[in-house]
Amino acid sequence: MVSSTEYGSHTWELLLKVDHQHEDVGNEFLLQVTGDLHVGGLMLKLVEKIDRAQDWSDYAFWWEQKKCWLLKTHWTLDKCGVQADAKLVFTTQHKMLRLRLPSMKTVRLKVSFSSMVFRAVSDICKMLNIRRSEELSLLKPSEGTLKKKKKKDKNSKEPATEDILNLCNSPVSSGLPANPGLYSKTMTPIYDPVSGSPASSTTTWFGDSSSTEQNCSILALSHPNCSPETLAEMYQPRTLADKAKLNAGWLDSSRSLMEQGVLEEDQLLLRFKYYTFFDLNPKYDAVRINQIYEQARWAILLEEIDCTEEEMLIFAALQAQYHVSKLSLSSETQDSTCESEVDEVEAALSNLEVTLEGGNKSNILEDITDIPKLADNLKLVRPKKLALKAIKTYWFIFRDTSISYFKNKESAQGEPIEKLNLKGCEVVPDVNVAAKKFGIKLLIPVADGMNEVYLRCDNEDQYARWMAACVLASKGRTMADSSYQPEVQKILSFLQMKNWTMCSQTAPEPENVDMKPECFVSPRYTKKFKSKQLTARILEAHQNVSQMSLVEAKLRFIQAWQSLPEFGLSYYIVRFKGSKKDDVLGVSYNRLIRIDMATGDPITTWRFSNMKQWNVNWEIRQVAIEFDQNVSIAFTCLSADCKIIHEYIGGYIFLSTRSKDHNETLDEELFHKLTGGQE
Q: Is 403 a residue whose pLDDT tops 80?
C-alpha cells in the first residue's frame, strides 16, 4: 500500500493561463497534476475549475516557451515534456487575421492559428471562393518594403479600418466545414463572362444577405486604379537585391501561424506564390482570375517585372478596357453581345481542353511518325567586343531541339557551320512591332557560362514559328508536341495586340476621354511622356482590344504577363559554394537561374527536369542539388531562410504532378514530404 503522503509527492503544481472573456473570473489557474495525466484530462480539469458554461471546443494549449501547440490530447504531460515551469496558455485555435489580397483589398477573417499554413491557406481560399489554393501562400511584408507605406499612413486622416472587408461570419471562418459542392466539377457557373460579375449562386457561399453578395462582388471585380500619388508612395524595387526583399517573408507551409510569430489581428499578404495557374476556368474562377490579374497588374505598375514600352502600352490598354467600355458602351449593346461572347468563351475553353489533353486522337499517330522541322533564311547576330555586332544571313534548320546553320540552302546537305542544342537555354524575345524588329535572344549553357546568340526574323509569322520552337526546345520538347501550334497562335495573338497600326478603327481624341493615363503605367513612363501624349498612345493601343469582353481582357492581360521574359521568377541573394561573391538565384516553375548581381545577366540555368535529387544541410543552412551529367551545385541563402527555396523547389515539383483526373483533391502528405524541413 502507498500512503497518501507518498502519493502526493508524485503530483506537482502547474500554472495555466486562460484566454477567455469572463470578467468575473481570473485568467490564471493553479492545478495539481501528475506526469501521467493526458492533455485531454488537463483540459477537463481546467474547464471544471473555471466553472463557466461556454463552448470550449475550439480551445487548445499553446506552450509559450517551446512555441508549439499541444494538439495530441491523448499524449501524457510526460510524453509532451511538460514540467512545472511550463507556461501553457489555454486559448482559441481560430483567431482574427487581416489579409491583404493581390488586389490590395484588405479582408478580415477568422483563421486557424494551429493548423499548418498549407491547410490554413486552403481554408482561407474556400472562404474567398478561390480554387487551387495550393498556388497561394502567406507572406510577411519585409520591413524595407513598408517604409514608404508607413510614411503615408502617418499623414492619412482616414481611419485604418474603413477599407477592411469583414468576412468573419463566413462558414469556414466560423469553424464550420466548407461546402464540398462548391468545388465539384458539376457546380453551376459562378461567373458572368460578359459583365465580369459573380452569378447569384456564388452568394450562397457567403450567405443570403445583400452585404455578403456585395462582398463577393468586390473580390471578383476590378476597381478603378489608384492615383499616381498613391502609386508613387508604394515600394518599387530598383535592383535585383530589392526584388529579393519581396520574396524573403514567405511563411513555412509546414508550420502553424502561431509557431511563426503571427499574432491575432496581424496583417499578412495573400499572394500567388507558384506561377503555374492550373485549370483556369472563367466559369468558376471569378475571384481567382481577378486576383491573378491584380497581382500581375501591380507587378507591372510597381516595376517588379520589366517590360518594354510597347508592352507597357498593351498592359495599359487592357487595363483601360474596363474604363473605356463603361464610357462608350450602352447597357443595350452589352446585352446584345452577351450571347455571342458567352459562345466565344465556351469555344476558347473547348480549345483549351483539347490542348491540355494533347489534341485529337487522330493526330496522335501523325505526332509520332512526323518529325517536323523548320528551314529558313535568318540573320545571325553575334555580340562582339567594343559593342560591335556581326550580322549575317545564313540558312537555318530547326530539327528536334537543335538549330543548325549553313552558309546557304545549297550547302545544307553537308556539315553545318555550327549546331546549337537549345535544351536548358534561356529564350528572350527581342521585339518591336512598330519598328518591324523580330528578334530571338538565346542564352545557351556552356561549360563557362552562357553563350549569347541572336536570331533575326523577317516577319511576324516566321518569328512566331521559330520562337515557339525555341521555347519548346528549351524545355526539351520538339515541334511534334501538341503544344506547339497553340504556342504559335499565342505569340501571334500577342504580336497582333502590339500592332495597333493595323486596326481599322480610329482612336477617340484624348480630349474626349476622361481618363488619368498615369494610373495605367509605371512611374517611369509617366515621367517620359506628357499626360496628353500618354492618353493618345494608350487609346491607340486600345483599338486592338476594344472588342474584348472585360473577362477576356483580364485573361489576355495574364497571358501577356506570362509572355514576359522575367515572368514567374522569384529572386534570392545566395552565395554559391566555392564562390567569393554573392549572386542572385532566380527560382521559376521549371528551372533555377544563376544571375550576376551587378549586371543582371544570366550565368547558368538548371532545369528541374534534369534534377536527380536535392537536400538541405540544416546545420549550415546549405541547399545542395544534383543534376544529370554529374552536375552538382550547393549554396547558402543570404536574403531569406534556405527553407523558403527548399519549399519552392519541392512545391513546383508537387504542382507538376497535378491532374484533372484526380478530382481536384490534393495529396497534402506528398506536399509536406517534398517541402517539409527535417529540422
A: yes
Instruction: Specify the pLDDT at position 509.
Output: 58
CATH class of 373-479: mainly beta
Q: How far apart are CA 31 and CA 520, in angstroms?
A: 63
Secondary structure percentages of the chain, helix, strand, coil, to 5: 40, 25, 40
H helix or E strand, kind and range, residue 155:
helix 143-155
d(CA 498, CA 434): 8
Say what the pTM is.
0.81
Q: Burial of 410 by CB count in 10 Å (0-12 exposed, 13-18 middle, 19+ buried)?
A: exposed
In the sheet with 28-33, reading across from the earlier edge strand, the strands are 28-33, 12-18, 88-92, 59-63, 68-70
3-state secondary structure of 420: strand
Residue range 39-74, pLDDT digits in tens:
999 999 999 999 888 899 999 999 999 999 999 999
* Beta-sheet pairing, 28-33 with 59-63: unpaired
Lookup result for grid cell 498615369: 518
Task: Report whether 256 contacts 69 (CB < 8 A).
Answer: yes
Asked if 539 contacts 514 with a C-beta cutoff of 8 angstroms, the reply is no
Do 373-479 and 570-675 come out as alike in CATH topology?
A: yes
CATH number of 570-675: 2.30.29.30
Give the Cα separation of 446 and 74 in Å (integer): 58
Fold topology of 11-92: Ubiquitin-like (UB roll) (3.10.20)
All structural domains of the chain with their residue ranges: 11-92, 373-479, 570-675
CB atoms within 10 A of CB 121: 24
What confidence tens digit (pLDDT) does each residue in 447-490 have? 666 788 899 999 999 999 999 999 999 988 999 998 999 999 99
Three-state DSSP at 646 gives helix
Count of residues for the chain? 679
Q: Of 60, 90, 94, 231, whose CA–CA distance to 149 is shortest?
A: 231
pLDDT score, position 279 = 87
Q: Per-residue confidence at 187, pLDDT binned at 50, 70, 90?
A: very low
Q: For residue 88, give Cα distances in angstroms to 29, 265, 323, 402.
A: 11, 21, 55, 64
